[in-house]
Amino acid sequence: MSTSLERAQLWLSDSYDAETRNAVQGLIDNNPTELDDSFYRDLEFGTGGMRGIMGVGTNRLNKYTLGAATQGLSNYLNEQFPNKEKSVAIAFDVRHNSDTFAKMVADVLTANGIKVYLFESFRPTPELSFTVRHLGCDAGIVLTASHNPPVYNGYKVYWNDGAQIVPPHDKAIITEVESVKVDEINFEGNDELITIIGKEIDEAFINAAVENGSFTKEGKEDVKVVFTSIHGTAVAITPKAFEQAGFTQVHQVAEQAIPSGDFPTVKSPNPEEPEALTMAVALANEIDADIVIGTDPDADRVGVAARNNEGNMVLLNGNQMNTVLSYYLLEKWQEAGKLTGKEFIGSTIVTSDIFYDIASKFGVDCKVGLTGFKWIADMIRTFGGQEKFIGGGEESFGFMVGDFIRDKDSVTTALLVSEIAAVEKAKGSTLYNKLVDIYIALGKAYQEDLISIVKPGKEGAELIANMMVDFRANPPKELAGSPVVRVKDFQSSIEKDLVSGEEKSIDIPKSNVLIFYTEDGSKVACRPSGTEPKIKYYFSVNGPLASKEEYKSVQDILLAKIDQLKVDFSK
């Protein structure tokens, strides 16, 4: 295996431009640590595609790593569709270099004879998913690093159904990419094959979002919403969608409505983090708003805060948000007489098991896949014509309403969650109380949390790998005082009952994930991130709940159990 230095020296050849050669030489001469991290491996496609720090090197996002990815994709498209005109839609976010990277990617595609539909300016990722199917494209690409820090960028590839790539296409494309030599990347684009798109697609997407995310006009003029795009792409679309859906009291956080790849008002532009919504909550308290909605830079994730029974704004976690959304959708389908037993909601292996309870209550199926919306989209593809997809999501603040797109969608989700808040307000209740009502209807309350342990660089990747090896060799015997009774290992595809010793196979694609279940119903999932240098621990606990009066005390017990689990997994 070649060393990082040897791999870097290959980038000093005339195949690379002078700016790149100078930057690489600078690393060789002055920064061996950065050199090693920039060249010790190639960027890989994870659950969110290819994502990394911008800069020179095989382990960085740059003209050549993106060029090789696009040349490999072009080769694959030309192999898969040899006798037709091929087209690819391209969108990009507000990050530094995203627009430049998007044009460069378009040039490689057109240089290979592939037509490109390129957005005129930044757009939400869900709009790209919608556009692929709307225009009948063979693939789609979005340049984004989601909620990562400003030094990152990324590259997501979508197939012709508007979903991110899954087997066999992902591995086949990676094989093509890995075989591309730098001299084989064709950067000489043909602008005649590029069509700039914008307003007409926006209108079609907004129409579809309103149609799928609206069931009633009740209370929409009375509910007061604070919305923030956290400097991201949602500002281009979501305010217009709110207006078209009939919401008249939507207040934007003005400072965060300014698009910026620096995300200057937050530590992290991630609505999963309460800090990211600090300004929005402050505005909500100032104007006495009912809910707060915030989206990440590429507008696929959405965070929601609602007033609790003490009148304080609290951030719902992703499982809680999706609980309310899924339950409401199923209620509306039931009211319309559309539930036949051949419908399903979608979830993921690290998400709360409450969605099994919700599906059972309404007589529908709950299908569970690996982390990432591409697997929920794969369910829609696999069961199309047999079962109807209603909605679904994962704990990382993502949800998808219906199948008019095939990725998490903050735009439609924002409309739907605002409608639920409006309906509840019209009844003299709140979105928060809707969640508690659902727990009571199910007979038990759930509580979830997540911790991430960051281990950057080459050394960090090795540490994370060793942590997973140790979990498999020495699994915990008890968690928060309750015996571990069941283990699911998605790498070996084996589920083991530790009481009976019975083993059974797991019919889900292999992944480096472990899930431990305890005697008292707690669940802990351990998973290295596919897009960031961290290992994640997902906690879910539950306890019986019969009335609203009990909820606070039950929640306190569950939160204490979560705290103990955090201690167990922070050692």
UniProtKB/TrEMBL annotation:
GO terms for biological process: carbohydrate metabolic process; purine ribonucleoside salvage. GO terms for molecular function: magnesium ion binding; phosphopentomutase activity. Transmembrane segments: none annotated. It holds the Pfam family PGM_PMM_II. It comes from the Bacteria. Signal peptide: none annotated. Residues 44-179, 204-308, 317-437 form the Alpha-D-phosphohexomutase alpha/beta/alpha domain. The keyword Magnesium applies. SUPFAM superfamilies: Phosphoglucomutase, C-terminal domain, Phosphoglucomutase, first 3 domains. InterPro entries: A-D-PHexomutase_a/b/a-I (IPR005844), A-D-PHexomutase_a/b/a-I/II/III (IPR016055), A-D-PHexomutase_a/b/a-II (IPR005845), A-D-PHexomutase_a/b/a-III (IPR005846), A-D-PHexomutase_C_sf (IPR036900), A-D-PHexomutase_CS (IPR016066), Alpha-D-phosphohexomutase_SF (IPR005841). Belongs to the phosphohexose mutase family. This is Phospho-sugar mutase. It comes from Faecalibacter macacae.
